[in-house]
Amino acid sequence: MRKRRVTLLALVAVAACGAPDVVPDSTVSPGVTQTATATATATASATATKRPAADPDTDGAHADFDGDGNEDLVITDTSATVDGKYAAGYVAVVPGSTAGPDIRRHQVITQDSLGLGKAGTGGRFGSHAISADLDGDGRSDLITQAGNNTVFVVWGGKKKLSGAVGLTGATPVAGDFDGDGRADLVTSGSTGSKATVRFGPFTRAGRPARTRTLDLTPDTSSYYTPRPTGVGDVNGDGRDDLVVTWSHVFADEMPIPRATVVYRGAADGVLKKGPRLKDARGKDMYGSVTLTSDVNKDGFADVIVSLTCESIGDIAVPEGGSRLMVAYGGKSGQSTSLKPTTINEKTAGLPGRPVSSHCGFGYTPATGDVNGDGYADVAFNAPVKAGQGNESVTLVLRGGPEGLTGKNAKSTGLPMGPLAIQDLNGDGAAELAGGTWNESGADDTVRVLRGGPSGISTSRPTLIRPTDLGLEPTPGDGPDFGH
Question: Which in 195, 206, 457, 467 has the greatest CB count within 10 A?
Fold first, then answer.
């Protein structure tokens, strides 16, 4: 059986209202079927509004589309068949409540339901999904990509998301780059090194207050594919900074990350290239996933990078083993007093006997405050010792004054696929959500574990299956319930 995963998508809080109700509420858009090898994907979105610098979730999960104060869960399936179109994709929103995720009020959104053209085969609506309060109404808006060069914004509202616009661009990230308290949106071109910064507030027609072009051309000729991959105030000046990954393209034409660079936010909106992040050995820090969070609660966002496997022709274990790395923020963009941290199998305190000498350590990381102590925590998957097959476990590492360490780390005892950390019940301690592995389409499940003062609890999880969203699994070969 093909290895499968179910994951989630975590998004940030803020803005929306009004606009025609063109999106079905608590129903499935006509023609949506769940493919048999579906996956659910967890991804943290960029910050959408200005929050205190010490907020542990500067790049974390704060989606609140209805503005009720409870974060909402987003599950995407980019492989879903819609109206006969394979891999057209959808986004499902499960609102949060004081009792946790409220599956009864779920909403499924497809490109077809937006009234902005028909979804095409392989369009993968739902990819690169984030949220931000683009129109400044106090509710999150959903931002997602379809195809190679189209970004859709679906406006939040008191009862549901409704109304949408399409923008040109790819790989969207959001933050407040000029420090005016308004969410801004950065998109890349489908090719080249130019990015577009659209400054908020946006009108419901999708018009930003102003626009700038950002040149992300690497200063090293062998790295020629730059992409925005993270957002956070790493230098503590009250403006978000843009984290950019530089990649090299090898013979198989796959961009392979090779460096991570911070572009500093600025009051005039002209982002300037800052530090090229280095690990404790002084070598370039890079990886397949980039997050930001304040894991040591010093007021600077820290950059978290997951280097699991490398694909240089063939998939291979990175030199030194797969790992999770943290570059701590500071006034210059990287701390001069706290050395970067590398988390691997040698890190003291890790439960579950994980190994980093294989691909997969640090896979699908997510960040948020699971125990409400104000320090960002980090969850990720890691393979376990030989003799246990290809199994993996999900680990949760606590943030603290010393940064990210293995002290008081916990294991969920099972792999959970790509992850999201969100406070879905509004109690100040975020929940951990993730998917299942190696299951048939009918068994795909998003599992939500409660957070609390002692961290994540594995008892009495909330389970969300495709059928709970009105989606009937069918035979197929798509890999993405929630990606």
Answer: 195
Report the 10 Å Cβ neighbour count for 210.
12
Burial of 215 (0-12, 13-18, 19+ CB in 10 A): exposed
Q: Is 284 left (phi over 0), alpha (psi -120 to 50) or beta?
A: beta
Taking the mean position of all CA atoms in its chain, how far away is CA 326?
Answer: 17
Mean pLDDT estimate for the chain: 83
pTM, whole model, 2 decimals?
Answer: 0.87
274-308: pLDDT as tens digits? 999 999 899 999 999 999 999 999 999 999 999 99
Ramachandran area for residue 438 (φ above 0: left; ψ -120 to 50: alpha; else beta):
left
In order of 146, 191, 301, 353, the CA distances from 149 in angstroms are: 7, 9, 30, 43
220-242 in b/e burial notation, b at 16+ Cβ within 10 A? eeebebbbbbbbbbbbbbebbbb
Q: Where are the beta strands (DSSP E) in 308-428?
A: 310-312, 314-316, 323-327, 341-343, 363-368, 377-383, 392-397, 410-411, 419-422
H/E run at residue 32: strand 32-35
Asked if residues 6 and 446 have their Cβ atoms less than 8 Å apart, the reply is yes
pLDDT by residue (tens digit) across 436-467? Answer: 754 455 567 899 999 999 999 999 999 998 88
Helix (H/G/I), strand (E/B), else coil: 104: helix
pLDDT value for 82: 87
